[in-house]
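It is worth pausing here to work through a concrete case rather than discussing structure prediction in the abstract. The textbook approach is simple: state the sequence, then state the predicted structure, then interpret. We follow exactly that order.
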Amino acid sequence: MAAVDVASRDVIGRLSADLVHIDRETQQTVAALARSWRATADGRHYTLELRRGLRFSDGQPFDADDVVFTFQCYLDERNASPQRDLLVVGGKPVVVRKLDAYRVAVDLDEPYAAAERLFDSLAILPRHLLARAEQE
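Step two, the predicted structure:
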Protein backbone atom coordinates (compact mmCIF):
# COMPACT_ATOMS: atom_id res chain seq x y z
CA MET A 1 0.00 0.00 0.00
CA ALA A 2 2.96 2.33 0.51
CA ALA A 3 5.21 1.19 -2.35
CA VAL A 4 6.14 3.88 -4.85
CA ASP A 5 8.99 2.41 -6.88
CA VAL A 6 8.25 0.96 -10.31
CA ALA A 7 9.37 -2.61 -9.54
CA SER A 8 7.23 -2.85 -6.40
CA ARG A 9 4.20 -1.37 -8.16
CA ASP A 10 4.66 -3.89 -11.00
CA VAL A 11 4.68 -6.83 -8.55
CA ILE A 12 1.64 -5.46 -6.69
CA GLY A 13 -0.16 -5.06 -10.01
CA ARG A 14 0.43 -8.71 -10.87
CA LEU A 15 -0.73 -9.97 -7.47
CA SER A 16 -3.86 -7.89 -7.12
CA ALA A 17 -6.76 -6.45 -9.07
CA ASP A 18 -8.44 -3.10 -9.36
CA LEU A 19 -12.10 -2.21 -9.86
CA VAL A 20 -11.68 -1.17 -13.47
CA HIS A 21 -8.66 -1.29 -15.71
CA ILE A 22 -7.45 1.35 -18.13
CA ASP A 23 -5.95 -0.36 -21.16
CA ARG A 24 -2.66 1.51 -21.53
CA GLU A 25 -2.58 1.00 -25.30
CA THR A 26 -6.13 2.03 -26.17
CA GLN A 27 -6.86 4.21 -23.10
CA GLN A 28 -10.24 2.46 -22.93
CA THR A 29 -11.78 1.55 -19.59
CA VAL A 30 -12.22 -2.21 -19.18
CA ALA A 31 -14.16 -4.11 -16.52
CA ALA A 32 -12.09 -5.78 -13.80
CA LEU A 33 -13.50 -6.43 -10.31
CA ALA A 34 -16.38 -4.12 -11.18
CA ARG A 35 -18.46 -5.55 -14.00
CA SER A 36 -20.15 -2.21 -14.68
CA TRP A 37 -20.26 1.37 -13.45
CA ARG A 38 -22.25 4.48 -14.14
CA ALA A 39 -22.00 8.14 -13.26
CA THR A 40 -24.70 10.68 -12.56
CA ALA A 41 -25.15 13.50 -15.06
CA ASP A 42 -23.31 15.93 -12.79
CA GLY A 43 -20.25 13.62 -12.64
CA ARG A 44 -20.13 13.58 -8.84
CA HIS A 45 -21.64 10.20 -8.02
CA TYR A 46 -20.69 6.76 -9.29
CA THR A 47 -22.29 3.38 -8.73
CA LEU A 48 -20.16 0.31 -9.33
CA GLU A 49 -21.64 -3.16 -9.72
CA LEU A 50 -19.12 -5.77 -8.60
CA ARG A 51 -18.54 -9.17 -10.16
CA ARG A 52 -20.10 -12.01 -8.21
CA GLY A 53 -18.44 -15.28 -7.33
CA LEU A 54 -14.89 -13.93 -7.12
CA ARG A 55 -12.58 -15.10 -4.36
CA PHE A 56 -9.25 -14.04 -2.93
CA SER A 57 -6.34 -16.47 -3.29
CA ASP A 58 -7.16 -17.97 0.13
CA GLY A 59 -10.69 -18.85 -1.03
CA GLN A 60 -12.52 -16.10 0.87
CA PRO A 61 -15.20 -14.29 -1.15
CA PHE A 62 -14.75 -10.77 -2.51
CA ASP A 63 -17.57 -8.27 -1.97
CA ALA A 64 -18.43 -4.62 -1.34
CA ASP A 65 -17.02 -4.73 2.20
CA ASP A 66 -13.55 -5.25 0.71
CA VAL A 67 -13.97 -2.22 -1.55
CA VAL A 68 -15.12 0.07 1.28
CA PHE A 69 -12.32 -1.23 3.53
CA THR A 70 -9.74 -0.63 0.78
CA PHE A 71 -10.72 2.99 0.27
CA GLN A 72 -10.73 3.54 4.04
CA CYS A 73 -7.21 2.11 4.29
CA TYR A 74 -5.82 4.25 1.48
CA LEU A 75 -7.50 7.36 2.88
CA ASP A 76 -6.35 6.79 6.46
CA GLU A 77 -3.50 9.26 6.99
CA ARG A 78 -1.91 6.91 9.55
CA ASN A 79 -1.10 4.50 6.70
CA ALA A 80 0.89 7.16 4.78
CA SER A 81 -0.28 5.71 1.47
CA PRO A 82 1.02 7.56 -1.60
CA GLN A 83 -2.33 6.76 -3.25
CA ARG A 84 -4.22 8.90 -0.72
CA ASP A 85 -3.75 12.08 -2.74
CA LEU A 86 -5.36 10.37 -5.75
CA LEU A 87 -8.52 9.95 -3.67
CA VAL A 88 -8.87 13.60 -2.73
CA VAL A 89 -11.01 15.52 -5.22
CA GLY A 90 -11.75 19.19 -4.77
CA GLY A 91 -9.83 19.16 -1.51
CA LYS A 92 -12.04 16.48 0.06
CA PRO A 93 -11.61 12.69 0.24
CA VAL A 94 -13.95 10.61 -1.88
CA VAL A 95 -16.71 8.87 0.07
CA VAL A 96 -17.32 5.18 -0.62
CA ARG A 97 -20.48 3.51 0.65
CA LYS A 98 -21.73 -0.04 0.48
CA LEU A 99 -25.16 -0.19 -1.17
CA ASP A 100 -25.43 -3.97 -0.93
CA ALA A 101 -23.09 -6.96 -1.10
CA TYR A 102 -22.18 -6.28 -4.74
CA ARG A 103 -22.71 -2.55 -5.24
CA VAL A 104 -20.81 0.46 -3.96
CA ALA A 105 -21.41 4.18 -4.34
CA VAL A 106 -18.54 6.62 -4.74
CA ASP A 107 -19.26 10.28 -4.09
CA LEU A 108 -16.98 13.13 -5.13
CA ASP A 109 -17.16 16.67 -3.79
CA GLU A 110 -17.03 18.04 -7.33
CA PRO A 111 -17.00 16.66 -10.88
CA TYR A 112 -13.67 15.11 -11.85
CA ALA A 113 -12.95 14.34 -15.50
CA ALA A 114 -10.52 11.53 -14.64
CA ALA A 115 -12.77 9.88 -12.04
CA GLU A 116 -12.54 6.44 -13.65
CA ARG A 117 -8.81 6.55 -12.91
CA LEU A 118 -9.71 6.42 -9.20
CA PHE A 119 -11.01 2.90 -9.76
CA ASP A 120 -7.96 1.86 -11.77
CA SER A 121 -5.29 3.04 -9.37
CA LEU A 122 -6.00 0.96 -6.24
CA ALA A 123 -5.30 -2.68 -5.51
CA ILE A 124 -8.36 -4.01 -3.67
CA LEU A 125 -7.38 -5.36 -0.27
CA PRO A 126 -8.72 -8.45 1.56
CA ARG A 127 -10.67 -7.03 4.50
CA HIS A 128 -10.89 -10.42 6.22
CA LEU A 129 -7.08 -10.54 6.57
CA LEU A 130 -6.11 -6.92 7.07
CA ALA A 131 -8.89 -5.85 9.42
CA ARG A 132 -7.90 -8.71 11.71
CA ALA A 133 -4.22 -7.70 11.52
CA GLU A 134 -5.17 -4.11 12.32
CA GLN A 135 -6.83 -5.27 15.56
CA GLU A 136 -3.81 -7.31 16.69
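Step three, interpretation. Helices lie at 6-15, 64-75, 115-120, 127-135. The chain has one domain: 6-135.
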